[in-house]
């Protein structure tokens, strides 16, 4: 019986190029309760399927764009809440990088029976309109 053939080139081959960096900045995620509470005391812009809360951070801490997502148990069970948050995250990745501002915190709050079922394109249009209203129309 012959010994198994081992492809030495395949084993030692390592990628020589690093993966291309993303063309858009990475959104930092809010994780601390205090950040969510600060955003809750700031501006609120209601939309049909979600609520946008936004605040400008102090100039000494203003580095990057931060976003948080939350859905209460009123939205539904864990499956419904996770689906709603997935849709909010997708919307934020699509629009906040282009329409959001550096040094701001944004919180997207899911709404019961709306966030998980509302038309995604309509939600994106609502977020874009809310950001334009929040920042005075000029981007």
TrEMBL record:
GO terms for cellular component: ribonuclease P complex. Consists of a catalytic RNA component (M1 or rnpB) and a protein subunit. It catalyses: Endonucleolytic cleavage of RNA, removing 5'-extranucleotides from tRNA precursor. This is Ribonuclease P protein component. RNaseP catalyzes the removal of the 5'-leader sequence from pre-tRNA to produce the mature 5'-terminus. It can also cleave other RNA substrates such as 4.5S RNA. The protein component plays an auxiliary but essential role in vivo by binding to the 5'-leader sequence and broadening the substrate specificity of the ribozyme. The keyword Ribonucleoprotein does not apply. It comes from Roseinatronobacter monicus. It comes from the Bacteria. InterPro entries: Ribosomal_Su5_D2-typ_SF (IPR020568), Ribsml_uS5_D2-typ_fold_subgr (IPR014721), RNase_P (IPR000100), RNase_P_CS (IPR020539). One of its GO terms (molecular function) is 3'-tRNA processing endoribonuclease activity. Keywords: Endonuclease, Hydrolase, Nuclease, RNA-binding, tRNA processing. The gene is rnpA. It holds the Pfam family Ribonuclease_P.
